[in-house]
Amino acid sequence: MPPRDQVSRVTKMLGDEFGTASNIKSRVNRQSVLGAITSAQQRLKLYNKVPPNGLVLYTGTIVTDDGKEKKVTIDFEPFRPINASLYLCDNKFHTEALNELLESDDKFGFIVMDGNGTLFGTLSGNTREVLHKFTVDLPKKHG
Fold first, then answer.
1. What PANTHER family would the database entry show (predicted)?
2. What is the pTM (predicted TM-score) of this model?
3. DSSP code of 50?
4. Dihedral, CA atoms, 76, 81, 83, 86, nearest 10 degrees?
5. Do 83 and 126 touch, CB atoms closer than 8 A?
């Protein structure tokens, strides 16, 4: 969940998914998906709002080294802002969005100017930050 996302939006989406998952024909698969959605809903209740860098939540059933099934729920705030909002129901945890956080540490500055004002900002990976922004009221050209 990105930093400015709403916990209530994700909770509602999970509720909708719960209804859809109830129609899964395979009993084992249906119970697994419904259990994961319920775990995610319960974990989200611990959050009043999304943390400043966003929220990553993985929930599901894994097979341990000794072959036993174990339910896991992992939630954390990433060390840098995450800009992806992703919900996937699959047989593995998808970590591609986290890999992007590790890739680019290069930071670029940019200045955008037009007749209405100026914006100063930075870009690092897919994270952009507005440092300063102001508007100007320029007189119109006179013939």
1. PEPTIDE CHAIN RELEASE FACTOR SUBUNIT 1
2. 0.69
3. -
4. -10
5. yes
